[in-house]
Amino acid sequence: QVQLLESGGGLVQAGASLTLSCAASGGTFNTYVVGWFRQAPGKEREFVSDITWNGLNREFADSVKGRFTMSRDNTQNTAYLQMNSLKLEDTAVYYCAVGPWLSRDPKLYDYWGRGTQVTVSS
Fold first, then answer.
1. How many CB atoms lie under 10 A from the CB of residue 35?
2. Where residue 26 falls among pLDDT bands split at 50, 70, 90?
3. Among candidate residues 41, 24, 18, 33, the one with its CA nearest the CA of residue 87
4. Residues 6 or more apart in contact with residue 67 via CB below 8 angstroms
5. Which residues lie below 8 Å from residue 7, measured CB to CB, with a gap of 6+?
6. How far apart are CA 114 and CA 102, in angstroms?
């Protein structure tokens, strides 16, 4: 079983940047795809980004493309989501997850963190 812990969320003004971290333990982290998802009040959980085990292939939702980027450090069992030019609509709980393949479908991910809150104010 892989345990995931997100950190780095907080309250920021629109236009600011935040970097979220996802620290893994209890499994072979470096064999997994890592994905980031978010869920805002009253909305379904939505895909944000994912990255392959070697970091060479990445995907981004259209809503964050050009503003967010993903990376990972397998020596530290940690993945990152760098968020720039944050907008009000980025406000959500952000979750990291791991799974076997690149996918925008949360059902294909095997293990999830508890989430970290990101709030963007005007």
1. 28
2. confident
3. 18
4. 83, 84, 85, 86
5. 20, 21, 23, 116
6. 21
Token pair of 10 as six digits: 């907080």
Local structure of 76: helix, strand or coil: coil
Q: Is 119 helix (H, G, I), strand (E, B) or coil?
A: strand
Specify whether the CB–CB gap between 58 and 8 falls below 8 A. Answer: no
Give dist(CA 59, CA 91) in Å, integer: 20
Taking residues 61-77, report their average pLDDT.
Answer: 96
Residue 83 to residue 66: CA distance in whole angstroms: 10
Mean pLDDT (the chain) is: 96
- Check if the beta carbon of residue 109 is closer than 8 Å to that of residue 98: yes
For position 1, what pLDDT does the model report? 84
Return the closest-CA partner of residue 38 out of 63, 15, 55.
63
Q: Are 13 and 121 in contact (CB under 8 A)?
A: yes
Instruction: Write the single-letter amino acid at 26.
Output: G
